[in-house]
Structures are given as structure tokens and as C-alpha cells.
Write a structure and sequence with these properties.
- The complex is a heterodimer of chains A (324) and B (82).
- With 324 residues, chain A is mostly helical.
- In chain A, 85% of the residues lie in helices and 0% in strands.
- Chain A has one domain: lithium bound rotor ring of v- atpase (Four Helix Bundle (Hemerythrin (Met), subunit A), Up-down Bundle).
- Chain B has 82 residues and is an all-alpha fold.
- Classes of the chains: A mainly alpha (324), B mainly alpha (82).
- Chains A and B meet through α5, α7, α8 and α9 of A and α1, α2 and α3 of B.
Chain lengths: 324, 82
Amino acid sequence: MEQDIQTWISVAAYSGAGIAMGCGAIGAAIGEGYTAAQANYAISRNPGASGDIVKSMLVGQAIAESASIFALVVAMILLFTNFSTESYVTVSVVLSAGLCMGLGAIGSGIGSGFPAGAACIGMSRQPGTSARLTTNMLIGSAVCQTPSIFALVTSFILLFTNFSDRPLSPTWAAIIGAGLASGLGAIGSGVGGGLVAETSCEGTARNPEMAAPVTNIMLLGQAVTQTTAIYGLLISFILMFKTFPASDSLAPSMALLGAGLCMGIGAIGPGIGEGLTARSAVQWVSRNPKSIPELTRSMLVGQAVAESTGIYALVIALILIFVM
Amino acid sequence: MAIEGADIIKAAAFLGAGLSMGLGAIGPGVGEGMAAAKACEAIGRNPQEAGLLTRTMLVGQAVSESTGIYSLVVALLLLFVV
């Protein structure tokens, strides 16, 4: 039984589309379910505000949905595009694009559910603040979506760049590594950014006069939380755009695949941890505005220490790419 | 393309180094974040004790960091020694 390149590319494209949409559905569904649960709770507390609460639930769910819509777009491209059949590298390209977008949508989907849920609860407590709460929720959820946009960018670069002229080994491993670095790296930052935005919505409702500093500290905390996703994006760009010399042995391929896995998985923990830190700091900014300087300082110091393991992962990934 | 034993061992060492540091970074990252979160909470409740709380936070995080450093050491051993 003979299989040609076209067969393998179709196998990889269809598997990639399945992985993209299957994994891509996890996060958004959890996030939207959480939002709906919080909205129900909020309406039971204050049925009079149900109009505002339902509106903000739907807006929040629409934002959480965007990550899985990215996955749907990538899956559709994988299903209905005729990819170049010049080289077996295309097999790994289409598989990697699917993996990248599927994994990359998990974190942002879950994360965006948290601020939307907190905004619904906040509206039931303080119906007067619904405009401020919606603004704050939109800013927070938008930042949550950035890791999934990084994954989308990586998938699109993979799909629309011609890698056929590169040597099959080790390029196939670099391509899969690039998808994993961006995709897995987006999980932690997406969830972490959502945790920060959750208490920021809660704080805005609790203490509406403090809305401006609460939003500022939220953005600062989220910015630090995003750094590990940016490391993942950096490693995947290096893996995609650096041309690696052809090699018959297995070791160079595994070094590049290992680099992608290392940075992708290594970014999950620090992203979630830094999100937890900023979550508590933002919560107490609204409760105790006098101690904003101390809170900001300890948040940044704590996040810096939590970042260290992400930096170790970056260092090992760079050694695997450039030294080995 | 003939793959020799030494090549497979090297390939496994590279992949192992990546997995070691990648998986090893999850626990310390989340754990240190939790420690810092509780420190922020405590400073919010009792800002006068910020110095003591930050010190305790850093000591706790340093201990929690140790497993991340073990992963780093194992990854470097796999890359440069084994």
C-alpha cells in the first residue's frame, strides 16, 4: 500500500483541525458556564437588576467565546485549504498549527469567564456602577484574550509561510516545537489574567470611587502575568524563522522539540501563580486604598520570584536551540 | 538514514531536559504565586507589618523555588554532563 505526501498532509490537517476545535472548545465552555452560574446567583440576590446582569453576562460570554472562534477559523482553514505537497515538512506545519490554536484557546476562554462572572455579582450588589463595571470587565477580558491572539498569530504564520525549502530534519521538530511553545504558553497567562480581572471587577463594585487605581493595578498585574506567554511567542518565532542546518541524526530534532515543550509547559505555572498574586493585591487595593504602595511593591516582588522558574525554562529552551 | 544508539541517547537527553525544566516550572510558579497572594492579603489587612510579611514571603518562596532549581540542575546535567 503506497501513501504519498498528499495522504499524510490530509491526515495531519484533519487531525490538526480536530485537535484545534476539540481543545479550543474546552476553555470557552468552562468560562461561559462560570459566567452564567455567577449571573444566576446575582439575579437571585437582586432580581430587579436582572436586565443589566443578563446584558453583561452575554457581553462577557461573547468575549470568552472569541478564543474558540479563533480555533474554529483555524480548523476551517485546515479542512478546506489545499496545502503545498512539495515536502513532508507541510505535514508537521498543519499539525502544529492545529495544536497551537487548540491549546492556546484554553487559557483565555477560562480566564475571560472570571471577570464576567464578577461583573454580574457586582451589578447585583451595586446596580448603580454597572457602566463602570462593564468598562472594567471589557478591559480585563480583552487583556485575557491576548495569549490566544498570540496563538492565532503563530498558527497563521505557520499556515501561510512556505517552509517547503527547509530540510525535513530537523525543521519538522522546530515547527511542532513552535506550535507547542505558543499554544501551551498561552494557557497560564490566559487563566492568570482572568484571575486578576475578577477581583478588579469585584473591587470596582465594592468601592466605586477606587475604580481608577483598581483598574491601573489590574493592568500592571496582568502585564506581568502576560510575560510568560510572550516568552512562549518569542521561542516559537525563533523556531519558525531560524533556518536549522540539515541533519541525519535525531538529536538536533529532539533539542528543538524539547525547547518548544520546555518553554510551553514552563510558562503555565508562573502565569497562573502571578495571576493569583495580582488577584489578591487588586482585591486589597479596593478594600484598603491607603496601602496601595505597599501592596503594589509586594505584588511586584512576589510576581518577580514566581517568574523565576519561567525564566529558567526560557534559558533551557535557548540553550537547546542555540548551544546544542 | 541510520540512527545509532549514541544519537538516540543524546536525543532522549535533550527531550528529557526540556520536559524536566518545563514540568518542573509548573509547581514553583503556582506555589510562589500563592505565597505572594497571601502576603498581599496580609499586607492589605495589616500594612504596618509589611516588612515582616515581605521577609516571610520571600523565605517561603525561596523554599518553594528549590524544586524549580532541582529541575534546572537536572536539565543542565542532561544537557552538558550526561
